[in-house]
Amino acid sequence: ARVGRVLGQSGSPGVRWSSAAAGNVRSTAASGSLVYESKRAVDEYLHFHYAPNEHTIPYKFGPADALQFPARMAGIAAKYSRPDRRGVAYDVGCSVGRGTFEMTKTFDKVVGIDFSHSFINAALELKAKGAVDFEATEQAVLRSKLVAKVPEGAVPERAEFRQGDACNLGDIGTVDCITAVNLLCRLPEPRAFLQKAIDCVREGGILVLVSPYSWLEEYTPPERWLGGRLDSEGKPIESHRVVGDMLAPFFNLEARSDEAFLLREHARKFQWGVSDCTVWRRM
Hints:
Elements: E1 2-6, E2 15-19, H1 39-50, H2 53-56, H3 69-80, E3 88-92, H4 98-103, E4 109-114, H5 117-129, E5 131-139, E6 142-149, E7 159-163, E8 175-181, H6 190-200, E9 201-211, E10 229-230, E11 236-237, H7 239-247, E12 251-266, E13 269-282
Parallel strand pairs: 3-4, 3-8, 4-7, 8-9
Antiparallel strand pairs: 1-2, 2-6, 5-6, 9-13, 10-11, 12-13
């Protein structure tokens, strides 16, 4: 890669730039699990988790309420966790770890799990070094250089990161909190994950379930979608209702909110979405 210094988008100097190989341009906007092992995916998610707001939206307008999504979801877990239920938490689908680090401000131990080896390696490097360099796509093969840092106030020694399968978490014991942020509709067996939460969250603990319910065949066979389709009578099946039917015998629904998120593909293209955020307290 070639590195140089040019004017940033705002017209101010000081942004470091590079030029990447032309073939390395596929964004995580494209579907398929293999996308999440690429360097491009790691860079995009490091940006999603750690980039400063002014780089994510370098304009005088834009959906500012969608910024800092992983930190906001960790804040919801902190808000609804009971003081006597702040021992062990699992951040399942942790990606590159921002939510996991944020949760160490509240919980004594937080285990971040992700299926992507590349995401976990990035989170482990960040835990070890405190900072990790990454690149953001600006236009075609033009990249800017940024640095991801462990968030202020986090306690990295409380965080663990493991590669794993959300549908087969194994013996994790009894836990005080499970967060699953934009995970459920990317699982081949979403019911298996929900059953694990039922089995493992202790009385008074919480499940924070956040999903845009973007069911896709390449991740989940249609017969295993939790809603998002028609029933045998041609009536729509809504995902929140299906999830609720499964969880309600074991959890109380404490809160529900719409939570916006913004994933930057390049300087002039973004994924804006709204996830259904529900907080469930184990009975």
